[in-house]
Amino acid sequence: MDLSKFKSKVRIQVRYADLDTYGHVNNKVYLSYLEEARIAYIHDLELDDKITVFDLGSVVGRINIKYLRPIEFGDEVWAYTRCSRLGIKSYDLENMIVIRRDGQELIASRAIVTMVSFDINTKKSKPIDQIIIDRVNEFEIEKPCRD
Fold first, then answer.
1. What is the b/e burial string over 22-37, where b = at least 16 CB atoms within 10 angstroms of the residue's CB?
2. How far is CA 91 from the centre of its chain?
3. How far is residue 144's CA from residue 147's CA, in Å, rounded to a whole number?
4. Fold of the 3-146 domain
5. Beta-strand runs (E) in 13-126
6. 118 near 108, Cβ under 8 Å?
């Protein structure tokens, strides 16, 4: 995967508590890494004036993670994020969790997180706000596909 397509990235600190009995980052911890990446992406879109970290304007509908190599304590870890699809009420965030070892960038996992635009008051899905669509299209190097 070409990481140059990803403008948003955040450094992830691997904590001792993230490890399983084999000394690898436990698979459930990747979900919190993806959450950190989503929050960083919102900041990178400069949507802080429209959306807070407590109301991202959307909820997670699905997460598909492919684990490619283990992350170990002491690894330098980065989470890359880009919007790969914009629908009417949902969008996909594509993530790469990358470790840097010996001068190389190695992809530890790939994920697609489907976010559903959500009205916190009515508790129902809603069309994605136009401001989000506009900011995503302005920000992304490769424009997200539309459906």
1. eebbeeebbeebbeeb
2. 12
3. 10
4. Thiol Ester Dehydrase; Chain A (3.10.129)
5. 58-67, 76-86, 90-101, 104-119, 124-125
6. no
Helix (H) or strand (E) holding 104: strand 104-119
Q: Which of the 8 DSSP states describes residue 25?
A: B
pLDDT, tens digit, 9 for 90 and up, residues 57-66: 889 999 999 9
Tens digits of residue pLDDT in 71-114: 999 999 999 999 999 999 999 999 999 999 888 899 999 999 99
Amino acid identity, residue 26? N
Domain segments of the chain as ranges: 3-146
Q: In the predicted model, what is the mean pLDDT of residues 123-131?
A: 92
Give the angle subtended at the CA of 5 by the CAs of 85 and 48, to the nearest 5°. Answer: 65
**Size (the chain), residues:** 147
